[in-house]
Design goal:
Largest sheet: 7 strands, mixed
Number of helices: 13
Bound molecules: adenosine-5'-triphosphate
Shape: globular
Distance between the termini: 31 Å
Structural class: alpha+beta
Helix content: 25-40%
Strand content: 25-35%
């Protein structure tokens, strides 16, 4: 992990928030490469979940919602983690994560293991951030920063179904920020208090929910494989009765083997009709679906797929990170799937003369016109320029050399195989397009 964190900082993937003020704990800013990576993860998700299907619609609900939403959803009363505090060192842990935790004092031992440690009883701690709507800080104006995007999809269920003329089964997808006042954030961007979620709520007829649950679990695994994550690094973890959230009938986590162990990457949940029924009850408005064919009326069940976008970006980074020796020299390379790579192609003039920079700039312009994110580098040896792009995960480097002005061909070097191919200057854009799929 240290190597990933250091690469992220060095190359501008992720910076510590408010660094010049000493940093804001466990808040991270995505730099030029990171913002592209995270966006590419979200776009790959959106493309599969929304654009490639006719039974899922997109939505972007507000982060702030009516406070009653969170009473209905059960978050005000039940979105809690058990907080355990040591009265001696003042350190706090999540009681259900205590096996992996350590006492901050030396020698490092399990919490409570030092003689003078004094662990209190676990207390339930609500994870929602509270704030105030309007200028007066009074109870009536308390609102919450949403801890999940899902509720925005439930309260808009009929709006979306009717305007998009969808029939059950269909889904609503959202990508957006969520906030949780986590007791123990950490492991870099794995667990943060502000994060982005890509969630999809699939509304189905009660009775067909188990089948749809299996379908969505399978689809989501395939998606992770499809963006290049090694299948042997992914596994499923079914929630036991003690782990199940208050709304869930079944829940399976897709876990990834991070350097700090197997941890959840995405959750697939059968939320039954819990959320829609509760919103009916609390709002007094009907959230019934009436089947236009059979006339049947029912409150749909919901199968949810919920993934953290930053967490998926971290998985992409961890999974892609390699250290290798190439021609006697060490290199660090991010073997990212080209669709996720922040920069798709880097253009290098071999020399700063003989018209090579001008040809390189012309090619760069062509790539940009074709909306292919591209970079330009003319500083340092060609080897060093390759290394810089390897670390950024750039799949292809295009070099303009002396031969280019003779026959208008360039070399394209592949990040992973290191193979170099000579391609006509006018075909570079098409060549890259074809490989981006
Ligand atoms: P945990 O039990 O680890 O706190 P959870 O089971 O409550 O997580 P979900 O509510 O299922 O998580 O959230 C769906 C997804 O959102 C998770 O699989 C994860 O990828 C992401 N996620 C949840 N909390 C965080 C967080 N604090 N930081 C980053 N991503 C998060």
């Amino acid at each position: 992990m240290e190597k990933i964190v250091s690469l992220c900082k060095r190359r501008g993937f992720v910076f510590q928030s408010s660094e010049i003020y000493g940093g804001a704990a466990s808040v991270w800013d995505y730099g030029p490469l990171g913002v592209e990576l995270r966006k590419n993860v979200a776009d790959a998700w959106w493309s599969t979940m929304v654009h490639a299907r006719d039974d899922i619609e997109g939505l972007d609900a507000g982060i702030l919602m009516h406070p009653r939403v969170w009473e209905a959803s059960g978050h005000v009363s039940g979105f809690t983690d058990p907080l355990l505090e040591c009265k001696t060192c003042k350190k706090r842990w999540r009681a259900d994560h205590i096996e992996d935790a350590g006492c901050p004092r030396k020698p490092s031992v399990a919490p409570g293991a030092h003689k003078d440690c004094e662990l209190g009883e676990p207390r339930l701690f609500n994870l929602m951030f509270k704030t105030f709507m309007g200028p007066v800080e009074e109870d009536a104006s308390v609102v919450y920063l949403r801890p999940e995007t899902a509720q925005g999809s439930y309260v808009n269920f009929l709006n979306v179904q009717q305007t998009a003329r969808q029939r059950v089964p269909f889904g609503i997808a959202q990508v957006g920020k969520a906030f949780r006042n986590e007791i123990t954030p950490g492991n870099f961007i794995f667990r943060t208090r502000e994060f982005e979620q890509a969630e999809m709520q699939f509304f189905v007829k009660p009775g067909s929910d188990d089948e749809w649950f299996d379908y969505w679990l399978d689809q989501r695994l395939k998606w992770h494989h499809g963006i290049g994550i090694r299948p042997e690094k992914l596994r499923q973890h079914a929630h036991g009765p003690n782990e199940l959230a208050h709304y869930a009938k079944t829940a399976i986590d897709i876990e990834y083997e991070f350097p700090f162990g197997w941890q959840e990457l995405e959750g697939v949940h059968n939320r039954t009709d819990f959320d829609l029924s509760r919103h009916q009850e609390y709002s007094g408005k009907r959230l019934l679906y009436i089947d236009p064919g059979s006339g049947e009326r029912f409150v749909p069940y919901v199968v949810e797929t919920a993934m953290g976008v930053g967490r998926a970006a971290l998985v992409a980074l961890v999974d892609a990170y390699r250290e290798e020796e190439v021609e006697g020299q060490a290199r660090v390379v991010l073997g990212l799937d080209p669709r996720l790579a922040p920069i798709k192609a880097a253009v290098f003039p071999l020399m700063k003369k003989f018209g090579q920079p001008e040809i390189a700039r012309e090619l760069l312009k062509g790539l940009r016109t074709a909306r292919i994110p591209a970079g330009y580098d003319q500083a340092g040896s060609i080897g060093r320029r390759y290394r810089r792009q390897d670390e950024a995960g750039t799949p292809w480097c295009v070099t303009i050399d002396r031969q280019t002005s003779e026959d208008r061909t360039v070399t394209i070097r592949d990040r992973d195989t290191l193979a170099q191919e000579r391609v006509g200057l006018d075909h570079v854009v098409g060549w890259i397009r074809e490989r981006l799929g």
